[in-house]
Amino acid sequence: MVESEAPRLDAIFHALGDTTRRRMLRALADGEKSVSELAEPFEMTLAAASKHIKVLESAGLIRREIRWRTHVCRLAPEPLARAHDWLGFYERFWTDRLDTLDRLLREEDAKAAAEHQREGEKDERDDD
Fold first, then answer.
1. InterPro entries recorded for this chain (predicted)?
2. Candidate CATH numbers 3.40.640.10, 3.40.190.10, 1.10.10.10, 3.60.20.40; the one for domain 3-76
3. How far is it, in rounded angstroms, from Cα 58 to Cα 55?
4. Given this model, what pLDDT does residue 37 score?
5. Which residues, 6+ apart, have CB-to-CB distance to 94 below 8 Å?
6. Is residue 2 pLDDT above 50, yes or no?
7. What is the pTM of this model?
8. Helices (H), the chain
9. Which partner for 60 in 26, 30, 71, 79 could form a disulfide, CB atoms 3.0-4.6 Å apart?
10. Which tens digit of pLDDT belongs to each residue from 48-107?
């Protein structure tokens, strides 16, 4: 990802860093909503909701349209795709790390099983 994307990604991750804004995005995944509808589950003022919406809008995560006197918001998925792509690079890192951990744990289990079997065979010989 080019360095010019960095400020955009910073804005996206800043917007996603707040629980209220993530829940608003989740609500918008079901379809467009008015600012009042977005504010309702949080028991917040329209002014407070508007501040959250401005952060989401600045990050490009939502689009707002004014219909008469109602501000209607809808999800803009493109920036989420950029964030997903960026995280995808690190997903490969963690997948590789988890694969290594899985292999080490399996080797450790195999050694423990072999040791347990040797101890069982030794106990049988001692009983004879």
1. ArsR-like_HTH, HTH_ArsR_DNA-bd_dom, WH-like_DNA-bd_sf, WH_DNA-bd_sf
2. 1.10.10.10
3. 5
4. 93
5. none
6. no
7. 0.67
8. 6-16, 19-28, 35-39, 46-58, 78-127
9. 79
10. 999 999 999 999 999 999 999 999 999 998 888 888 888 888 877 777 777 787 788 888
Contact 8, 60 (CB under 8 A): yes
What contacts 45, CB < 8 A, 6 or more positions away?
39
Residue for token pair 């509808």 = 37
In this structure, which amino acid lies at residue 68?
W
CA distances, 97 to each of 83, 86, 91, 107 (Å)? 21, 18, 10, 15
Amino acid at 39: A
Q: What backbone torsions phi and psi does residue 103 show, to the nearest 5 degrees? A: -60, -45
In contact, 28 and 73? CB cutoff 8 Å = yes
Q: Please answer whether residues 85 and 104 qualify as being in contact, where contact means their C-beta atoms are separated by less than 8 angstroms.
A: no
